[in-house]
Amino acid sequence: MTSNHVRTAATWFAALFTTSLFVTAATSFAQGPLHQML
Q1: Measured between alpha carbons, how far is 7 from 20 in angstroms, rounded to an integer?
Q2: How many CA atoms lie within 13 Å of 33's alpha carbon, on the beta-carbon side?
Q3: What number of helices (H) and strands (E) belong to the chain?
Q4: Which sequence spans correspond to the domains of the chain?
Q5: Cα torsion through 21, 17, 15, 3, rounded to 10
Q6: CA dihedral 5, 7, 8, 9 (to 10 degrees)
Q7: What does the alpha-carbon distance between residue 35 and residue 5 come to, in Å, rounded to a whole number?
Q8: Over the stretch 1-38, which tens digit does the pLDDT of each residue have?
Q9: Cα–Cα distances in angstroms (integers) from residue 36 to residues 18, 27, 32, in the given order
């Protein structure tokens, strides 16, 4: 396993983590403040 593979895997994990974090935040926001505004 080369350093390039490690870097690619780390980038994928970071992207997945950021996406899941964004989805969780968007979901909680839609159920909270956004739902009260509408």
Answers
A1: 20
A2: 3
A3: 2, 0
A4: 3-37
A5: 160
A6: 90
A7: 43
A8: 688 999 999 999 999 999 999 999 999 988 888 777 77
A9: 26, 14, 6
Residues in the chain: 38
Structure tokens at 22: 């964004």
Written as six digits, the tokens of 10 are 């780390």
Q: What is the dihedral of CA 28, 30, 32, 37, to 10 degrees?
A: 160
Give pTM, 2 decimals. 0.62
* The two three-digit tokens of residue 17, written as one number: 């983590």
